[in-house]
């Protein structure tokens, strides 16, 4: 099963539950008390997911590790590559 089919299956199941609550096929006390909250719950969940995604991205940006050893190694490789290209006649400005 591909990841797309997994997402479609989960969203289909959640959509079926939401549709049954909106059309009063299944009755819960919560649905009678707050019908607009049930109706707008997909929008609320998308908004909450967006906030979660922003928080995760910001956390990972702020905790990103600097790779000083790899940066120094890359600089050495650049110097070596320039030297090799200079031997072949390439001129750097």
Automatic annotation (TrEMBL):
What GO terms are given for molecular function? glycosyltransferase activity
Q: In which pathway does it act?
A: Protein modification; protein glycosylation
Q: Which Pfam families does this UniProt record tie to the protein?
A: DPM3
What keywords does the record list, in alphabetical order? Answer: Coiled coil, Endoplasmic reticulum, Glycosyltransferase, Membrane, Transferase, Transmembrane, Transmembrane helix
One of the record's GO cellular component terms: dolichol-phosphate-mannose synthase complex
Coiled-coil regions listed: 64-91
Write down the superkingdom of origin: Eukaryota
* Residues that span the membrane, as ranges: 7-26, 38-59
Query: Which locations, inside or outside the cell, does it occupy?
Result: Endoplasmic reticulum membrane
Q: What's its membrane topology?
A: Multi-pass membrane protein
Q: Name the principal localization, coarsely classed.
A: endoplasmic reticulum
Task: List the InterPro entries.
Answer: DPM3 (IPR013174)
Task: Give the function comment from the record.
Answer: Stabilizer subunit of the dolichol-phosphate mannose (DPM) synthase complex; tethers catalytic subunit to the ER.
Q: Summarize subunit and interaction data from the UniProt record for this chain.
A: Component of the dolichol-phosphate mannose (DPM) synthase complex.
Return the PANTHER family for the record.
DOLICHOL-PHOSPHATE MANNOSYLTRANSFERASE SUBUNIT 3 (PTHR16433:SF0)
Q: Which family does it belong to?
A: Belongs to the DPM3 family.
Name of the protein described by the UniProt record? Dolichol-phosphate mannosyltransferase subunit 3
Q: Which organism is it from?
A: Tribolium castaneum
Classification of source organism: Eukaryota, Metazoa, Ecdysozoa, Arthropoda, Hexapoda
């Amino acid at each position: 099963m591909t990841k797309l089919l997994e997402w479609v299956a989960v969203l289909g199941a959640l959509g079926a539950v939401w549709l049954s609550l909106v059309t009063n096929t299944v009755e819960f006390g919560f649905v009678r008390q707050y019908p607009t909250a049930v109706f707008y719950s997909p929008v609320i969940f998308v908004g909450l997911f967006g906030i979660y995604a922003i928080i995760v991205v910001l956390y990972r940006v702020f905790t990103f590790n600097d790779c000083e050893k790899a940066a120094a190694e890359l600089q050495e490789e650049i110097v070596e590559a320039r030297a090799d290209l200079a031997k072949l006649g390439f001129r750097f400005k």
